[in-house]
Structures are given as structure tokens and as C-alpha cells.
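Researcher: Batch entry, complex prediction.
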Amino acid sequence: MTPDMFFLLASILFSIGIVGLISRRNLFVIYMSIELMLSSINLLLATFSKVLDNPSGSVIALVMIAVIAAEAALFLAMIIHLYRENRTIDSDDFNHLREGA
Amino acid sequence: MLSLIVILPFLSALLMALVYLSNTKTNRYFFYTAIGVGTPAISAILSLVVLFELIGGSDTIHNTLFEWISIGEFNISLAFMADKLSAIMISFITLIGTLIHIYAAGYMRDDESYGRFFAYFNLFMGSMLLLVLSDNPIMMFVGWELVGLSSYLLIGFYHHDSSNIKAANKAFILNRVGDFGFIMAISLLFVSLEGTGFTFDSIKANISMINPEMLSIIGLLLFVGAMGKSAQIPLYVWLPDAMAGPTPVSALIHAATMVTAGVYMVARYSFLYVEIPDIGLFIATIGAASALFAAVIASFQNDIKKILAYSTMSQLGYMFIAVGLGAYSSGIFHVFTHAFFKALLFMGAGAVIIALHHEQNIFKMGSLKERLPLVYITMFIATLAISGIPPFAGFFSKDAILITAFASGHYVIWAAASFTALLTAFYMFRLIFSVFHSDSHETKELHHLPKSMTLPLVFLAFGSATVGFLGVNEAYGGSSWFNNFLGLPDIQLHIPHATEYILGAFNVSLGLLGMWIAYKMFAKDAKDVYADTIFKTLAVNKFYIDELYELFILKPIVGLSWLIANTLDPKIFDRFINVNVWTYKKSAVIFSKLQNGKVRYYALYILVGVSAMSYYMLFKLGVVS
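Model: C-alpha cells for the complex:
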């Protein structure tokens, strides 16, 4: 398999993540889209590490996996908190940034 | 010392204003009188010291306080200069000013705004002194404006009456028209001098570098300023209305300060006017027209103060005839003598008005000869002086002007001036006979006149009778001391003594004729003018000049303002702005749709931004094309 395939896969994963982030309203799905994008970046890092024969890329990918795990805990806690406060997980209901809302 | 003369009145005005404002209700008669009358007296003493120093042969005194403005070539110092001309001016301004202040202390005694009055009064004096003593046109302009301001304050002194405020505004606005000419003139002067210094001395030294056309424009514009201040046609209409102020104010405006400023200014710029005799002739023509015109109106008025106001305008006309024809010293000499008798006339009129409980119509007065003997005698002397009867002061100064007019060959001006002399005697004796001689059935108790109001009259009567001898010319056995002392660039006219005697006799007989006519008409039984002919109707109504101004100047301006306020402003300018505002509002609505508070939309914007940035970077790197 050539690295190109990995780049393509990473791009597809990232695009799916973006589209999910923008088009879906369920907070869980948004969260999963973000995770998907992060994973695609991880994949890209690992691929470059292999292509350039430089282990630091893989190291960063490993660090990121740890960070993503921590972030996942935070994220889920936030979603639960938001649900308890508002009894909804529809992201469009959280539009407090809008002026006059 | 020179600066003290100017600064003291300003300081005392400030002090009195502060004290007055601290408590407007308290009656501090003694304090205000001491400060308000004391300061001009000190200025008068200092001015006399300066004058005698100059008489003693010392050079022009300069006194620089500090540099006020310094921008490139434009250097203006707060500096004073006392040459012979300004020394004469400040001497009689402060002397007569002091007498008027003493008189005002009696006249205004019971006024509740006594302190405010004296604060304004001292400000007026200080402004005039600043105008006269300044050594450059800019400082002179500052004084000029301050005179306008303080006259505005004093004319509108009884501000509870809206007609007084109107009169004050009229004076101020008409003076503004003149000031426009003045400031244009000094600006042109500065530009034409190309930065070779801007004091009177250096202007005089460099006057030859300005071409004659420019000089004519400057001279004409300066005279526009003089027209406003000195109440000449066409800017005179404020002067009769200025009678709205207290009588001492009228005395001060007409005798010592304000109206003489225009004549002084022309004399101050005599080095300039010498170069442009055509403009001088124009000035003399305006002067003659004003003199005659005012004398005709004065002959048909019945308000004692208005008669005197028009008489001032008429006498100012004489002064402008003199300075216009190049006889600057004669003009200043008439300013000098006029100050004495006109101050006296106004103060006498004020005394009569007070004694009769504020009656101003001369035909409702009468038989005051026995009841107010002192006022009668002093006013009679002043009237003789203004009518040009020898040996009183007015004869010598007026005679000099008439001789100049005759000798210069401008016979129309001379004829107008001579006829004015006749009218002057007529309307002045008309006033005297109506007020003091004619029978009156009025027996009301006279209001008491304090000593402070009558004593200055005696001093001024003495002055009116004698100051003329300072300027007796060769024909009458004198040496023209006054003219020689001033040393102004006078025109040299030589006519035989015999002609001078004939002219002198002619003038005196004109004066006596006017007196006789007035005696016939008014001494026994004074009646108000009946407007039975067209001419009389015109004259009684001051030739409807006020109405004409209103119709041709005021109405169009008001109409234009209305037009602009109702069409141009709301329909064009406001609409332009409103359309702008409307556009912003509409576009803001569109943009506000973007900020809907939904996170995923914001994520989309970030994506778009990052994509665009990435694309740009890739494009720059040459990866895509």
C-alpha cells in the first residue's frame, strides 16, 4: 500500500467529521465527529512518521491519544451536565451566544 | 507704567466682577465706588504723566509685556506704544472717562446692579485704552473687539426689557459688519508686507513695498471697520438705538470711547491714507453725507438722547471729512474738543432726565432755566461749543475742518459741512430752548441731583470753553500747538488769512442764524413737529432707513434662512445622511443573521476561513494554480 492511500483515508475521515460536526445537532454525534477528525489527524501523523522515517510523529500520535482520552472524559461530563441543566442534547438549543437570546 | 494704564482698568473690572458675583444682593456702594472711580483716576494721572513726558520732548514710549504669538514670520507681542497721537487720546479718554465715572456714581446710585455696572464700565475704559495704546494692528483689533463687547454689555444693561437687548444686539451685529472689514484689511496688510514685521512702526517703514491698488483696498476695508465703530452711513443705525443703555454709558460711548475709535484708527494709519487720496476723498464724502443726514434727522427728533446721538454722528462726520481730506490733526482735534462738550451734553441730559423722573421728550420739558441753573449754564456752554461760537472749543476745531474742506477745493463737501453747521446750531438750541426756556405747566417736584452728578459738569464746561485754545491756528494769532505736537502727515494747504477770516465769520454767522431760528421757533412755546409735509414725515421717521434695512437686508436673510431650514437642510443634507443610516441598518440585519448563536454554524465559518487560508497558502506555494 502506498502512503497515498493513507492520506486519502485521512482526508475522507476528516471530511466525514467536518460534515458531521456542521450538519448534525445531537451533541453526541458532534462529539463523535470531533473524535473522528482527531483520529484522522492521528493517522496522518503516523503515516508521515513512517514515510519520513522519523519516530517523533508516532510519539506525538501516542501523546494525542492520551490527550484525546482525557478530553473524552471532559466532553462526556459536559454533555451530561448540559443535559441535566436543560433536558436536551440538541446543540441548536444552546444558542446563548446569539445577541438578545 | 504704560502697561499699568491699560491693565489697571481690566484688573479692577475683574475684581469688581468677582466681588459682585460672590453675592449679587449685598450693597457695597463704597467699595464699588472706590475701586470703580479710583482706577480710571489713577489711569488718568499716569496718562497725564506720559503726555507731559512726550511734551517734554521724549521719544515714543514703548513697553513690551511679553511675546504673545510667534509662528514663523508672524510675531505678535503684547506691547504698548505711546506716541504723541495715542498720548493725546489716552489723556482725554481717561480724564473725561474719570469724570463720567464720578457722574455715574451719582447717576447709578440706587441701581441694584451697581457693581456690575462699574465692572462693565471699567472694562469699557480698559478696552478703549488697549485699542489706543497697542503697538500693532492685532492688539488694536483685540481692543476693538473688546470695545464692541463691552458696549454690547452696557447698552443691554437694563436687560429685563427685551427692546434693550434688541438694541444691544443691533449694535453688536452692525459692529461685526465693520469688524469684518477691519480684519480683512489687517490680513491683507500682513500678507502684502511679506513678513517684514507687524508693528505700526515697521508697517510705516515698509509701506512703500505695497502697490497702490492693494493699499486702496486695505484703506477702504479699514474704513469699513471705522464706519461700524464710528457710526457712519451706512452702518450708523445702531447709534440711536444704543441710547437704551444708562445715560453715563451714552456719554462714555459718545465722548471718550467707542465712536472715536474709527477716527483714531484712520489717523493711526495716516501714513497709509496719505498714499491713497482717492480713498481719502471717499471717506470725506461719506463723512459729509453722514454729517448732513444726521443733522437733518436730529432736527426732527423729540427724544433728548436721540438728538444727542444723531448730533454725535453728525460731528463724527466732520471728523471723517477732516481725516479723509488729509487733515488728520484737525480731525483728532475735533475728536478732542468734541469729547468735552459731548460728554457734558450727555451728562446734562442725564441730569435733566433724572430730575424730571425719567422724562426724555424735550417737548414735555420746559422752564428748567430757573430750577436747574447749574445744568442750564453748563449745557448752554456745551451747546455754544458744538455750534461753533467763538471762543468756545468747538469753534476752533470745526473752523479748522471747514477751512480744510474749502481750501482743498471740494466745495460740495464744504457746502454740506457748512449747512450742517447751521443745522447743528439749530437743533442744539432747539433742544436747549425747549428744555430750559419754553413755558411749561409741569410743576412736579424735581428729583434731587447729587453733587457727584453736578461737579463733573462744571469741570467739563470749563474744558468745553477753553480746550479750543490749544489748537488756535496762525490766522487767529495762535501757533497750532495741538497740530504741531501731533506731528501727523497732514496735507499742507495755504490760503490767505483774509479768506480764513471770511470763512470763520461765515461759520459763526451760520451758527448764530441757527440759534436765532431756534429761538424764534422754540424759546417761547415749544411744540413737537407736525408731520404735515412729506419731507417732515420722512425726517421724523428717520427716513425709514431702519425699515429699509429690515426690508432689503433683514427680510431676505430671514427668508433665506427659512428656505434653508425647511428645504435644503431636511430634504437634501439630512436625507443624504438618513439614506446612509438606513443602508447600514439594512445590511446589519443581514449580517446579524450569521451570528445566530448556533455552534455548528460557527464551526462552519471557521472551516470556511481555514479553508480559504489554506487555499491561499497553497496557491502562494505554487501547489495549486
